[in-house]
Amino acid sequence: MADWLLITNRIFVTSKWIKCVFVSLLLLWLGACANLSDFGGGHFTDLFSSDEDEIEIDEAEIAALQTLVPIQPLWQKKLAASKTAVFSPVYDNGALYVAAEDGRLVKLDPATGQEIWRVETDSQLSGGVGANYGMVLLGTYKGEVLAFDEAGNALWQAQIPGEILSPPKVDSGVVVVRTGDSRLFGLDATDGKRIWSYQSVIPSLTVRSFVGVSIARGAIFAGFPGGKLVALNLFTGEVGWEVTVSQPHGVTELERMTDISSLPVVDENQVCAVAYHGRAACFEMSTGNQVWARDVSSSMGMMIDNHYLYVSEEHGTVIAYDKSSGTVAWKRGKLGSRKLSGLMIVRGNRLVVGDDQGFVTLINRQDGSLLARSPTDGGTILSRAEYLPDGFVVQTLKGGIFAFALQ
């Protein structure tokens, strides 16, 4: 609780939550479009790009990528493909947990991929996996939160209003769940009973995303449609501060969309977020005061280390910013794809990113040089890679689980 006192020096009072009413507008617009990328039906960021926005991948670029050494494969598994959901593997307490839309939850040995146990939940899953403190958490389209222990035994089931599109998080006895319409709920980790809820005012047209929340030092950091970043008390749901990462611009609803549709990142002193069609910005954790901001668009998010803030920009570029000043340290394009996944820092100076062609690429996080690249099953990789003791693992929309080794 003491750390939370750092970020409660001002309270922002929100107005009543406005229900999202974008469905009819979106359907009308879709009828006029013929060349839309398929992102599994559950993430609509790419619906708002046009042919003019696409980066052409020339033969020289592909040839250069083919010369990269492959990443050493460790093992692979197959789950059911996702139609409308995005799942993230999670490593916790020496085990790897993976899930699929058909209701399956599986515990794997992270070194070999050997199945330890599986649970058939008999639910259509839409959010997961979250794991911490001996708990494994899933969400469904019907707003069910499913909690299991490390042996696969059901602990409890809770009901909240709204579909759950991101992994529930648990920290310090509180399970935090986010619904697709940007409501947050705090549940008691012992029995699933609701402790608090939070509703944000959202624009009439938004990106439907699988973004969750970040938790650090007794606080929840969450980005919202309209470019807002909010800090909440983990235990009470009370708002500590609210800031604007990016202001809407343009005339039409589509042009004015500036949603934060990826996870904020946190270090010892600051929290950073990036908006679609907007900016990346860093703020003091204790006060919400802006440290710096730069114009950039991303729906897939960022990663932070001791020196840099890395952003998966729209159209297939990774940018490294000095995290103290926002100065561009390096910029890496020519990755063979115009749509990248979130980023993950792995062993040494390596940064891993996936793409919509099913490739994973290792980048030197000091200078942006390309180190290695390997295919998976050709399925889109939207969630960022997950840490393993001997490497990392990714999950594709085709249901492929691919683990790679790093020396």
List keywords for this structure.
WD40/YVTN_repeat-like_dom_sf; four-stranded antiparallel beta sheet; Outer membrane protein assembly factor BamB; 42% strand; signal; cell outer membrane; 32 strands; 407 residues
What does this structure look like?
This protein has 407 residues and is mainly beta. The protein is built from 2 helices and 32 strands. The strands form 8 sheets. It has a 4-stranded antiparallel sheet, with no helix packed on it. The longest helix has 9 residues. Part of the Bam complex. Part of the outer membrane protein assembly complex, which is involved in assembly and insertion of beta-barrel proteins into the outer membrane. It is found in: Cell outer membrane.
Structure, briefly:
The protein contains two helices and 32 strands. It has helices spanning 23-31, 59-66, and strands at residues 73-78, 90-92, 95-99, 104-108, 115-120, 125-132, 135-140, 144-149, 154-159, 169-171, 174-178, 183-188, 194-199, 214-216, 219-224, 228-233, 239-244, 265-266, 270-274, 279-284, 290-295, 302-304, 308-313, 317-322, 328-332, 340-345, 350-355, 359-364, 370-375, 386-388, 391-395, 400-405.
